[in-house]
Amino acid sequence: MVYDTSLAKILKRLQPGMTEPEVVRFSDGHFRHVIYSVGLYIANYVEQVLLACIVRGWCPRCLGLRNNLDEPASGCCHKHTEALIEEATLGDLWDEYGIVGDLVPFTNDYPQADIHELIAPDLLHQLIKGTFKDHIVDWVEKYLHQMHGKMEANRIMDDID
After folding, report:
1. Is 60 in contact with 90 (CB distance < 8 Å)?
2. Half-sphere exposure of 150 toward its Cβ, with a 13 Å CA cutoff?
3. What is the torsion angle, in degrees rounded to the nearest 10, for the CA atoms of residue 150, residue 155, residue 159 and residue 161?
4. Which residues in 22-59 are b (16+ Cβ under 10 Å) and which e?
5. Quick one: 93 exposed, middle or buried, by C-beta within 10 A (0-12, 13-18, 19+)?
6. pLDDT tens figures, 11-23
C-alpha cells in the first residue's frame, strides 16, 4: 500500500534513534541516554482503518467484536496481529478478526511503535461534525422550511453552502 510504504520511507531515517541510545543534553544541563519513538497519530476512523490495516467496522485499538463493542475487550497489539497472520488464512483474518492480512502497518519496522497504541481519535473533527453538521445544520434547515417554505428554504440553504 502506497500510504504505509510512504510513511515508512519518510520515517526510515529516524529508525536508528529508536534502537540505539543517543546521548542528549537536557535543558537542566544534564546528559541522558535517549531512545526515540513515534508519538500519537491523530486520525479519523477512515484513516485509522487504513493505518491499522483493519476491516472497516472493526475497532483499531481493541479486539472487541464489531457487533458488540460495549463488552470489555483486550487491546490490540502488533505481536498479537503478527501471531494471527502466521496462523490464520486471509479469509479468517478478515472475517473473524477484522485484519487485512496482506497489508503491513508503517510502524511494523519500528521497535518502539505499535500502531494500535499510537492512533488516537480526531475528537475535534468528531465534535464539529457531530454537533455542527449533524445537529445544528439539520435544525436550521427544518427551521427555514417551517418559516419560509420549501422553495425559499432551499434557496437560502444553497446560499449557505
Report:
1. no
2. 0
3. 50
4. eeeeeeeeeeeeeebebeebebebeebbbbbbbeeebb
5. buried
6. 888 888 888 899 9
> How much is the mean pLDDT over the chain?
84
pTM above 0.85, yes or no: no
pLDDT in tens, 107-159: 887 777 888 888 887 676 666 666 666 677 788 889 999 999 999 988 988 88
CA 100 to CA 94: how far, in whole Å? 6
Residue with cell string 467496522:
57
